[in-house]
Amino acid sequence: MKTYLNYQIAEKYEGLTVEAYLKQVLTYSGRKIQKLTRQKGVLLNKKPVYLQKKIQTGDVLRVLVLGDSSYGVEPEPSPIEILYEDSYLIVLNKPSGLLVHPTGQTTHGTLSNYLAHYYQQQGVISTIRPIHRLDRETSGCVVFAKDSQTQALLEKLLREGSIKRTYQALIEGTLTPANGTVNAPIGPHPGKPNRRAVNSKGDPAITHYKTIKSFANSSLLELSLETGRTHQIRVHLAYLGHPIIGDRMYGKNSSLIAGQALHAYSLQLPHPLEQREIALEAPFPTNFLHLLDRCTHSSNQ
Questions:
Q1: How do residues 229-256 score in pLDDT, each as one tens digit?
Q2: Annotated catalytic, 86?
Q3: Which residues in the chain are classed under CATH 3.10.290.10?
Q4: What superfamily in CATH does domain 4-64 come from?
Q5: Which of 59, 135, 147, 247 is an active site residue?
Q6: How many angstroms separate the most distant Cα atoms in the chain?
Q7: Domain 165-265+288-300: homologous superfamily in CATH
Q8: What is the spatial distance between Cα 169 and Cα 115, in angstroms, rounded to a whole number?
Q9: Is it true that the peptide bond before 177 is cis, omega within 30 degrees of 0?
């Protein structure tokens, strides 16, 4: 059974050719357009159309979803927590201690392997396409696209800053001022290849933070990013002298939590294909909540 994506033409695109709309708005490559035309996979108002036809406001362009032949990873059975799902994308709540996708020596036991098994159980073959990553020890919202076109549209939204991700973290000590912005470039660590560091020759990196609550020896922060550098929140907080509790790479190990106390708890984005907003919150993992209780209890003593 063939599946199509429907696009209603907005006024600002009136006068473009079908081919120009596919390339400029939907970011299809020339090769993919050729493949679609061979399969008669482009319809305008439910009728076959040639690529140089000009489109008008209100027209409906239907584009065939080109099927995937594999998951790209090996499916493995394990529970996943679904925060949102529709025909185009799925959002999962990643546990701490899990990679988003196989990398390096790790080919199994990742969130992508478990998502592939979920698709397999539904009788669906869909390549696993994470739109962004979270560090292994960071928990929370991760977005996956279900097809290559939705992937391209979501990646465009991410580049434009239209996908808003908000984090919460428990840090060592108390920040002064309580609310602020860290604007410090991040680049490779001079002596440790797996780490990042604030570096005058690095890429621009901006992190906004707000103190939600201060405890005796720690604080709960809300953080949002203007940029998406590797380990950005962790590096910036360590740079301020207040690393995330349990961050072994940029701070120190903690007996109070397995992993680091960093959670991507909320996500807001415009739906890539429908005229509506998606707003989600990911429940906090148990180890984060236990640590928060400990901080609260120690502060009340």
A1: 999 999 999 999 999 999 999 999 898 8
A2: no
A3: 4-64
A4: RNA-binding S4 domain (3.10.290.10)
A5: 135
A6: 74
A7: Pseudouridine synthase (3.30.2350.10)
A8: 26
A9: yes
